[in-house]
Every structure is written in C-alpha cells, then in structure tokens.
Specification:
Chain lengths: 366, 297
C-alpha cells in the first residue's frame, strides 16, 4: 500500500509513544468477532449455527466495520493414508484470495498487463500464505493419530479452505484464528470399522472377508477432532523503527546510530506499510512457541505481505528478536483467553436451548 | 430393501423431499451489502474496490456477488464506444458442493464458463449500459454452497448487488427454476428444485440420480428441468434453458414455463422486501437514527 513519508512518520512516532493511530496500545488486538456462533443478542438466530451448513466445520472471523473478513471451512472425507505415514490422518490447506480484489497500487499501474499481473501476484501471495500456514500450524493443529479410523486402511482427510474476503493487515493472524475456530467446530461422524468373514470358505480358496465401515449418522455422537483445542495461533509482530534525528546523533555517547524501535501486535495495513520487519510467531495454548518466520518489511507497492526483489529486505537487531517473541507469547495468551471466554459465553447461553441436532442446525434454512 | 423411506412418506401426502409443496420456493434470504465498501478508519482501502455486494441464500445454496464499477477498461481494444462492457466471472468455492470437495478452475470448467456467459446475457438485458460508455462493470460471483440452483441464485444475487452498487437497471431480474417429473404415476410440476430433484430430473432414471454431474440431456422422456429468469414487473422472460427432451410437446413446455414465472414472482417479492429494508435502513441512517448491527449473513 502506498503511503507517504509524512504519514509513515506520523504512524511511527505515535507507535513509539505507545498510542497507535486507532487508539490501541502496542499489545492490544482488535476486537475480532467470530460470527459462526451467532450472537446471543439476536434472539431469532440459532446459537451455534455454523456458517456453512454443508461443511463439517466452518467459521467466519470478522471485524465489525468489515475491514477484515475471513471465512474458513473444513470438509472431511475418508481416504487411504499415505504409505509413509499409515497411522496418521491427512490435513490439507488451501487459501483463496480471489475476492480480496487486486492491490490498489497495482491498479494504478499500467492497465494492459494489470489484470494478469494482479492475478499472478495474487497467486504468489496465496501460495506464500498457504505454505506459511502449512509449516507453522498444520503439524500442531490436530492430533493426527486420532484421525485414524482403520489403521493402515482408512483415515480422515480434513480439507481446510480459507477464503479471505477482505483483509486489513495481518492475514496470517486472521487466517489462523479462523482455522482454529473451524477445527473446533468440526463434527466428524463416528465411524466404526467392521470386519466380517465370508460365509462359504469351502468355495473360495481364501475366504473373502467383507470389510465395512459403519457410519453413525447420529449428530449427537459426532465428535470434534481430538486436539483441536491445541491448535496454535499465529501472531504477527511488526517492528517499526524510526531513524534517529540529527539532534540525537550529536548527543549520543556511542559512535553508532541508535534506532528507536518498537514491536506492535496486529498491525493494520498502514502500520504494516511502515514496518521495517514483520515476524510471525506461532504460539500454542501452553505458551510454547511452535514456529518463527520473518517476513519482509512493508515496502512500497506490496499489499499484504511478501518479499519482492530487494525492496523487502528485512533486518532488525538481534536483541529485538527476544523482545519480539516475548511480546508475541504475551499477546497470544491474551488472545487465547479472549477466544475461550467468547466461546464459554455462547456455550452458557446455548446450553439452555435444545441440543443441536440436524434439524436444529437447518432451522434457519427452511 | 423394502424399508419405507422418508421420501415415500412425503410423496404420499404430496410433499417433496424437503417438505415443500410443489409450488413453494425454498426459504430465501437476501443480504444487501454483505461486504460494505467503506471502512471506518477513513483511509481508502485500496483492496476493497467493490461498489456493491449481495449474498443470497436459497435453501442451502449460498451465493455471494460483488460488483465493481463502472471503472476504466484495462485495454483499449475491449472498450465499446457507446456503452459499458459487462464482465461476469463465476466461480465456486472448493467447499461448495455437498459431499466431496472439488476445486474447479474457473477458467477451464465449461459449465462455469457457460453459466457466466448466460449470466452476462441476462444482466445485459436489464442494465442501462448506454449510460456509461467506454467503461467496465465487472461482476464476480462466488458460489459458497451449492445445493442445486446455483445459476438462479447467482442471477438473483447479481441483481441485488447491482442495486446495492447503484447501477441503474430497467427492472429487477429474478430467476427461479421449474421442473416436471413423473412422481407416483402422475405428472407433477414443481418449482425451485434442489440438488436431489435436479439429479432426478436430469440424471438417472427412476431410483435416484446417477453420477455426480447433472449434465444436460439424457433424462427420461418425461422429465423437464427449466431454469428461467424473468423481469417480473415487465413480464418479459430474459433467460430460459432447457436441456431435456420434451415428450409432451410444446404445451408441456408452456406449463412448466408458467410455473417458473410464478416462482420468479415469489422470488421478486422476497428480493423487493430486502431492497426496501435496506433503503429504509439507509434512510434512517441519513436522518441520524441508525442502528448498528453486527453484520450476519
């Protein structure tokens, strides 16, 4: 996003005094709302109504005011496991940015190659986000061994699709929250493997055993994938630094220049555009760090994230890295408590209503 | 297997598989402005360049439509000197079909390309394109959940999104499907078919639908499946697509078409109510009495 120098200066200066342009402090998250569990203020809505009825699990993360809107759906089916990991389920992830619109800066550029260039850029961003999420989250998202139905023969394959409708900074954060919520809402039917021996052993040489899978269609017996509560979240920490002014250099005792830096959480697009570095830290519910990845800074001309040639070269002092990770884990703890609190509130409300069977879920659609 | 199925019971009392009468459309909700273009921070977000959007749910089918424009045409060769170019893209989300998940490439799936084309023809009949020469209006349709009737839901969603974007239309284009099959010995004409009924009408013969594609043609000779788009206030038919063999001749087609037109009028009532509600909300906001609601789909 194109940003002017004075605007960048204003943003950096205000962040350095711990008061950002929308009034938050440096460790505050925006009030994301998860609307798949419809709010209890609207009495006509069914509580716990999923966003997508045809998927096994779904969620929608959005900010009121609609600057960020991310939808995630989880579909499950039974497949043969991969031969190298016969006792683990399979998780696939796909990110779709097609509705997000092209970058504004790209539209301003040449019109002819604009559409294709935009699409290619979008695909690159999509693949980058997908691969980052795959590396950072998927290995820890769910207990893979619990997805096995018949060891060696049939396992669950969860296909996670994230669709970003619009995003105002921190795509990875919003996507990871959406994935976590969708996984927690996923209901997998109870499947039992039944093995029967063939009746006539005499006729066939080797008795043909009939192998079957019994799928229990009762909604009450559907289970969530085990370990979904431990799905980690990505926190993107942006480091904003301002070059020292002329007066500072004169009065400093050391010879080298000192940059004033600050690490902020959940940056908006404008703040990301002035960031010198962005670090994505994956933290899980126990406070353990699952992964760290640095992205380039917000150079001019980039919409979401991604390095582009040499423009996005990121560098930050090593001492900042420790501070970044501690900031991230603190923010993650706050985020987890907030998400769980929201979930608990809705659960208290909905426990008085009827249990959600299929008819209850479909009530709004018919 | 002689167990009594739910559908048999329902058909005994002349109800369809989801409990509807033959002349009832599915439960339809419209949400105008599902992705509002403005942001609260005041700075123009360059990525959200949409002028209008709408989300339409018909039964379990959910379609989201985004309209961008009128804006500059990218290439000079594409622009028309006396009217606007209308560009329609239709794509499905990978989680859209019930059952297994398939990701269709929008540039190579013939069905989607055909439906985009039909959508473009249907909308061009209604938009006043001559008011915006040398510009482009681009419409993107994303099918979020497909339970049959995605073309009709897409047309309805596009109409509402165009209204939300403020692009002048001659009339609202409403779409609904109708079909006829042989149910329990007598012919029944039904409105707004869902996926199972479409498969029964176009796919296999008796005993449930065949494979997964409800490709055109090949149904038994009595079944007809007809999606229709009309402009109800003017009484003109904008689009109708029938790929079945008609055994009853032209009058069978006429009956089904009449039924579809009645369905379109019912759809129009729902859509008009949604437009009026949105207008009332905007009017109240203008007077300073706005109520802010967390936008829910």
């Amino acid at each position: 996003m194109a940003i002017s120098a004075s605007e960048a200066h204003y943003i950096i200066e205000s962040c350095l005094t711990d008061l950002r342009i929308d009034g938050r402090s440096k460790c505050e998250h925006r009030p994301y709302t998860i609307t798949n569990r419809s709010t209890h203020t609207k009495t006509s809505q069914a509580a716990n109504a999923p966003a997508f009825i045809l998927s096994n699990g779904s969620s929608r993360i959005h900010l009121p005011g609609s600057t960020t809107d991310v939808v995630c759906s989880v579909k499950a089916d039974l497949v043969h496991p991969s031969p190298s990991k016969p006792n683990q389920g399979i998780l696939e992830l796909n990110v779709d940015l097609s509705l997000c619109g092209g970058g504004g800066t790209l539209e301003a550029s040449a019109g002819g190659g604009g559409a294709q260039k935009r699409r290619r850029q979008q695909r690159e961003e999509e693949s980058q986000i997908t691969s980052l999420l795959q590396r950072l989250i998927l290995p820890h998202a769910v207990n893979h061994e619990s997805l096995v139905v018949w060891p060696g023969k049939y396992v669950w394959r969860l296909s996670i699709d994230v669709m970003v409708l619009r995003c105002d900074g921190c795509v990875l954060d919003a996507s990871s929250i959406a994935i976590r919520e969708a996984l927690q809402n996923t209901k997998l039917p109870k499947v039992q493997a039944v093995m029967e021996k063939g009746n006539d052993d005499a006729n066939n040489g080797g008795s043909a055993s009939k192998n079957d899978l019994l799928v229990d269609g009762d909604h009450h017996k559907a289970v969530s994938p085990c370990g979904a509560e431990d799905c980690p979240l990505v926190i993107t920490v942006s480091v904003l630094s301002s070059p020292p002014s002329a007066t500072d250099a004169v009065t400093s005792t050391t010879g080298s220049k000192r940059y004033k830096s600050i690490a902020i959480i959940d940056a908006r697009t404008e703040e990301e555009a002035c960031a010198s570095t962005r670090v994505c830290v994956t933290v899980d519910t126990n406070g353990m760090v699952c992964g760290v990845h640095t992205l380039g800074g917000g150079g001019a001309g980039m919409e979401e994230e991604g390095e582009q040639g040499g423009a996005g070269g990121s560098s930050m002092p090593i001492s900042m890295l420790g501070e970044v990770v501690t900031t991230a884990s603190m923010a993650a703890k706050n985020l987890y408590t907030k998400l769980d609190r929201d979930r608990q509130v809705v659960k208290d409300v909905s426990s008085t209503d009827n249990d959600c069977g299929y008819g209850y879920l479909l009530k709004n659609h018919f | 297997m002689t167990s009594l199925q739910r559908t048999d019971i329902l058909s005994l009392i002349h109800l369809r598989s989801d409990g509807r009468r033959p002349n009832e459309i599915r439960h339809m909700t419209c949400h105008l402005g599902a992705l509002p273009p403005t942001t609260d921070c005041g700075s123009a977000l360059p990525s959200s360049a949409c002028s209008g959007s709408a989300m339409v749910t018909m039964g379990l089918t959910q379609v989201l439509c985004i309209v961008r424009g009128p804006c500059d045409v990218g290439r000079r060769t594409e622009e028309l000197p006396d009217r606007a170019t209308l560009e329609v893209t239709m794509r499905t989300a990978p989680f859209a079909p019930p059952g297994d998940r398939r990701s269709t490439n929008p540039t190579s799936d013939r069905r989607l390309i055909e439906q985009s084309h039909l959508l473009q023809k249907a909308l061009s009949a209604s938009i006043l394109l001559h008011l915006y020469p040398k510009s482009k209006i681009s419409v993107t349709v994303m099918v979020l959940a497909d339970d049959g009737g995605r073309l009709e839901a897409a047309i309805n969603a596009c109409t509402l999104a165009l209204i939300d974007a403020g692009i002048p239309l001659k009339d609202m284009v409403c779409a609904c499907s109708a079909g006829r099959w042989n149910a329990g010995g007598s012919d029944e004409i039904v409105v707004d078919l869902n996926r199972r009924e479409i498969q029964a009408a176009t796919g296999g013969a008796s005993g449930g639908g065949g494979g997964n594609n409800s490709g055109g043609g090949g149904g038994t000779s009595d079944t007809i499946y007809l999606p229709v788009a009309t402009m109800p206030q003017r009484g003109t038919v904008v689009l109708s697509q029938c790929e079945s063999r008609l055994s009853g001749g032209a009058e069978a087609f006429g009956e089904v078409l009449e039924c579809a037109r009645a369905g379109c009028e019912m759809v129009m009532e729902v859509m008009a109510a949604a437009v009026r509600e949105r207008g009332a909300g905007l009017w109240k906001a203008r007077e300073g009495k706005a109520t802010v609601v967390l936008d829910d789909w």
